[in-house]
Write a structure and sequence with these properties.
Elements (H helix, E strand, L loop, with lengths): L16 E5 L5 H9 L4 E5 L2 H9 L5 E8 L3 E2 L1 H6 L6 E9 L3 E4 L10 E5 H5 L2 H6 L3 E5 L2 H11 L4 E5 L1 H7 L2 E4 L9 E8 L13 E9 L5 H11 L4 E9 L4 E9 L5 H12 L1 E11 L3 H4 L1
Length: about 290
């Protein structure tokens, strides 16, 4: 039997609460249960609300999606990280499994319509077409499941997570209906304080940084050159514009710990060619990285 669906309440100990963005039953809710099963999930309407819940001490941490293997990066997060006042302390990879959920007593023969978020519908085109269902776009997956349960119409189903089915009393008519069975979302855990792992441990460390380069020719090339000369592997590098398209900011993840000599030298060189540099987290690489 799956564990009971737990939601944080006003009486919950903040030290035992993890904030997430979305409605109860969202995929972020499922990620919380997978990654932090001992904490009570706190639903938040927006990413800003989830950040604030941690910053204000109403939650010990937040679990936030940062990128998806199919849809790419979650752009809002990169705008919030520089000023959010929080640090990345861990990562979690959630294999996204879409379930076809319907009220009890419904069969595949009675179904006519299926509701979900546009991305979920697009990721399940093959199953929707094969079953002859009319796809109907809704605001989110968990909300679709809740509304289908409330209407209790045997002609309607929702595409949502398994936890949404548990929460709203729906049955799974068909499991794992996504077209691509490698669809995975990466989440980061955010806390008020850095929790750097042991630099001398056996596990691979990842350092996350945000920086702005100086407005001079070849500044980015020179800044990143320190990683090459010091044999530091850059895992991820993304750019985005801020300050009215005037300034390019970068989010990067590198292998290694700031306490490692080669990483320290590379960061010093990066700082020399940058207008600003901030380490926003040092954490242990998730096992998924070596399995993928």
């Amino acid at each position: 039997m799956p564990p009971a669906v737990v939601i944080a309440t006003e009486s919950s100990d903040p030290a035992q609460v993890v904030a997430f963005q979305g409605a109860p039953g969202a995929y972020s809710h499922l990620a919380c249960r997978e990654a932090l099963p001992d904490l009570a999930p706190l639903p938040c309407a927006t990413f800003e609300d989830a950040f604030a819940a941690v910053r204000e001490g109403r939650a010990a941490c937040a679990l936030i999606p940062i990128e998806n293997s199919t849809a790419g990066r979650v752009a809002d997060i990169h705008q919030l990280l520089p000023e959010g006042g929080l640090f990345i302390t861990a990562e979690h990879f959630l294999r996204v499994r879409h379930q076809l959920l319907a009220p009890k007593g419904t069969t595949l023969k009675t179904l006519k319509r299926v509701y979900s978020h546009v991305q979920a519908l697009s990721q399940c085109r093959r199953a929707t077409r094969d079953l002859g269902l009319e796809p109907v776009v809704a605001s989110d997956t968990a909300g679709s499941a809740r509304e289908v349960a409330e209407r209790n119409n045997p002609e309607e189903a929702a595409i949502a997570s398994s936890i949404a089915g548990e929460l709203y009393g729906l049955q799974t008519l068909r499991a794992d209906i996504e077209d691509t069975h490698t669809n995975t979302t990466r989440f980061i855990r955010l806390e008020r304080q850095r929790r750097d792992p042991d630099p001398n441990g056996a596990a691979t460390c990842v350092t996350a940084i945000m920086f702005r380069v100086r407005s001079v020719p070849a500044a980015l090339y020179k800044a990143l050159g320190g990683f090459a000369t010091n044999s530091v592997n850059v895992i991820k590098l993304e750019s985005y514009l801020s300050d009215g398209f005037k300034v390019a900011e970068f989010y990067a993840e590198i292998e290694g710990h700031p306490a490692h000599h080669n990483v320290d030298l590379a960061l010093q060189e990066l700082e020399y060619f940058s207008r600003s540099l901030k380490v926003i987290g040092v954490f242990t690489a998730h096992a998924y990285r070596s399995e993928a």
